[in-house]
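ok trying again, last paste got cut off:
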Amino acid sequence: MTPRTEARLEKVKRASRSARRVCFLLMIFVLLIAGVMALTTVGLPESLTCKGAEPSSVPRPCSDLAPQVVAFAYIALVGVVALVLAALYRFARLFENYARGEIFTRASVRELRLVGYIAVANAVFQGVLFIAALALAANGAVKSPANLGHDVPFGPILVAAFILLLSCGSWTSGPRFAKKTSSRCKRPWRSS
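nice, full thing came through this time. structure:
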């Protein structure tokens, strides 16, 4: 390896160690914020006011909300926090691999693939939340799913579709596929 390449690798290692620390700090921050949100809504429901998404909605005490809406909010909070923590943990593991100098290895690819699966899980979760918001609206607990802050999750679905498309492409063009087809493929530039 040339000295310039080694210097670049050391720079990547240093940046990866810093990025790993940032991921762990973000994990702690997300846990603290989620804990504060959960404790304040449980401990002080009479003092909190909830307002709908539309501008004309009137703030009302959160204790007046239907139990289904409160359960929906807690499930959404726990699910989103779990997905964010899982993604941050996978990124921390990826940066740990980079800090060891393992840039293009199977472990790094596995971590990236797991982050992709977490993005797919997020899309599925957002879709389930939207369906649950529709059900709450149909039961009369809220006027519309927009009151719960949920619309059709086009963004996460597109990201998930793109990740699935990429991972399917890597499965068919990966080394195992090349080994299976290498004996059957004729290479015109090689003489037999």
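cool. Residues 97 and 105 are 9 Å apart (CA to CA). The two ends are 35 Å apart (CA to CA).
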